[in-house]
């Protein structure tokens, strides 16, 4: 009978250790791959979150800027309305006789008592700076000078100083035509509307300088 071979326990133990080490190494490699996968996935998620946050921040900035512009425009409109109302409350309506009496009283204050009183011409009439809005027989005047012009329609005479009436004429023109420009250009700021209105006024027949030119041409 052949002799039985004995089991080599050392070889078996060495093989077992080798297999165990190989398994541990494979597990480590697999774990590294999984960790790398999840790490890459986290980077993608973070980039998406950052882009989303940037979009939200820009959106909020645009909305905030629109709200600020809208609030500034509304405040500007309130100031315009308030100014117009204050003018209307402070501007009295005056009759022809009231204006005439006012002119006479002012003239008497300026003339010496021993002077012979005479009827002043419209060029000699003093300006009343505190009268901003006068209604004379249905016609509108911004100061005594304009009121005198209305009273002296039958005496056409060239105004030697039209520039003195420029401010009053401009205020009247602005109050009359500004609402129209606002309606035609609702998105414009008040400063832009006034610039447009100033250009119109420079060419308008309501401009005292232009009125002076028309009178000279007629003569």
From TrEMBL:
<feature type="region of interest" description="Disordered">
    <location>
        <begin position="1"/>
        <end position="22"/>
    </location>
</feature>
<feature type="domain" description="Coiled-coil">
    <location>
        <begin position="130"/>
        <end position="211"/>
    </location>
</feature>
<keyword id="KW-0175">Coiled coil</keyword>
<dbReference type="GO" id="GO:0006366">
    <property type="term" value="P:transcription by RNA polymerase II"/>
</dbReference>
<dbReference type="InterPro" id="IPR010422">
    <property type="entry name" value="Ccdc124/Oxs1"/>
</dbReference>
<feature type="region of interest" description="Disordered">
    <location>
        <begin position="49"/>
        <end position="96"/>
    </location>
</feature>
<dbReference type="GO" id="GO:0003713">
    <property type="term" value="F:transcription coactivator activity"/>
</dbReference>
<comment type="similarity">
    <text>Belongs to the CCDC124 family.</text>
</comment>
<feature type="compositionally biased region" description="Basic and acidic residues">
    <location>
        <begin position="12"/>
        <end position="22"/>
    </location>
</feature>
<feature type="compositionally biased region" description="Basic and acidic residues">
    <location>
        <begin position="72"/>
        <end position="90"/>
    </location>
</feature>
<protein>
    <submittedName>
        <fullName>Coiled-coil domain-containing protein 2</fullName>
    </submittedName>
</protein>
<dbReference type="GO" id="GO:0030496">
    <property type="term" value="C:midbody"/>
</dbReference>
<feature type="compositionally biased region" description="Basic and acidic residues">
    <location>
        <begin position="49"/>
        <end position="64"/>
    </location>
</feature>
<dbReference type="Pfam" id="PF06244">
    <property type="entry name" value="Ccdc124"/>
</dbReference>
<dbReference type="GO" id="GO:0005634">
    <property type="term" value="C:nucleus"/>
</dbReference>
<dbReference type="InterPro" id="IPR054414">
    <property type="entry name" value="Ccdc124/Oxs1_C"/>
</dbReference>
């Amino acid at each position: 009978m052949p002799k039985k071979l004995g089991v080599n326990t050392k070889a078996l133990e060495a093989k077992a250790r080798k297999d165990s080490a190989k398994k541990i190494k494979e597990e480590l490699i697999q774990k590294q791959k999984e960790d790398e996968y999840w790490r890459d996935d986290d980077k993608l998620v973070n980039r998406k979150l950052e882009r989303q946050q940037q979009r939200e921040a820009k959106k909020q900035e645009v909305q905030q800027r629109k709200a600020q512009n809208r609030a500034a425009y509304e405040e500007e409109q309130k100031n315009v309305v308030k100014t117009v109302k204050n003018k209307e409350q402070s501007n009295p309506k005056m009759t022809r006789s009231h204006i005439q009496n006012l002119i006479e009283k002012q003239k008497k204050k300026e003339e010496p008592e021993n002077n012979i009183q005479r009827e002043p011409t419209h060029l000699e009439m003093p300006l009343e700076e505190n009268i901003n809005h006068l209604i004379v027989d249905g016609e509108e005047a911004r100061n005594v000078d304009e009121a005198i012009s209305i009273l002296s329609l039958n005496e056409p005479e060239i105004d030697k100083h039209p520039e003195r009436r420029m401010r009053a004429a401009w205020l009247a023109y602005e109050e009359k035509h500004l609402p129209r420009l606002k309606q035609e250009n609702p998105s414009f700021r008040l400063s832009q509307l006034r610039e447009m209105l100033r250009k119109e006024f420079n060419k308008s027949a309501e401009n005292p300088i232009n009125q002076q030119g028309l009178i000279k041409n007629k003569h």
